[in-house]
Amino acid sequence: xxxxxxxTDLGHKDFYQAALKGSILSLHPTVRIIDISHDIAPFDLQQxxxxxxxxxxxxxxxxxxxxxxxxxxxxxxxxxxxKYNGYYFIGADNGIFSLIFENQPEEIVELSIIQDLKFLHxxxxxxxxxxxxxxxxxxxxxxxxxxxxxLVQRRVFEPxxxxxxxxxxxxxxxxxxNVITNIHKELFTKIQKERPFTLFFKRNETINQLSWHYNEVxxxxxxxxxxxxxxxxxxxxKGNASGLLGLQTDxxxxxxxxxxx
Length: 261
What we know:
Layout: E1 3-8, H1 16-27, E2 32-37, H2 45-53, E3 64-68, E4 79-84, E5 87-92, H3 96-100, E6 107-111, H4 127-136, E7 145-147, E8 160-162, E9 165-173, E10 179-184, H5 185-192, E11 197-201, E12 205-207, E13 222-226, E14 231-236, H6 241-245, E15 252-257
Parallel strand pairs: 1-2, 1-3, 3-5
Antiparallel strand pairs: 4-5, 4-6, 6-7, 8-9, 9-10, 9-15, 10-14, 11-12, 11-15, 13-14
């Protein structure tokens, strides 16, 4: 049967999403189409990468993940299909793959499917749909493209690490307005070494303990925890952390650890 997931910035208002799904079903009527998200901010590669990176491992191996972010025709941009960790990905080589993957993919091809000129401005319904259906049917990457070894690299802002501190930034605001930073649990644990800490962020707000779940503090109180993504989150129990605390993407957060006496 095959599974194709969709991660795009097409939204829900226009016909674009329906046109993409219709094109896929016309080529592969029995495929299962799963929406990961169509609410990515237009052209926001970092947001799309964060959502896809934290969702694709939950799917069965060989699932095909179609990425429709900043994919409009550009003579300098390649369209790629690749295999990574047993999954297939299709998208424009605009840097998004470097934001999703931690290692080099097992196989990469530049798609050689002939572009139908009437879909030049909307390759999702043409080249991407054809490639996705080919792979969902069990086809090989080598049959739809030529091997390449390099991916466009996009800079990832990593936390600044000091012996007694970590300075990070906000990378994502979820639908509950929880604020997710780029500080990973593994890094936090490595630097903390079981020491007490204080998390500083906008408006001179602080938090000095980790919670295991959102309801660990009274309703309306702020907290921090490591959520399902394993990145440090700032939240308010049943409240709007982003709005009430004034936190937006790219804002700086800082954790300072106390020296043991």
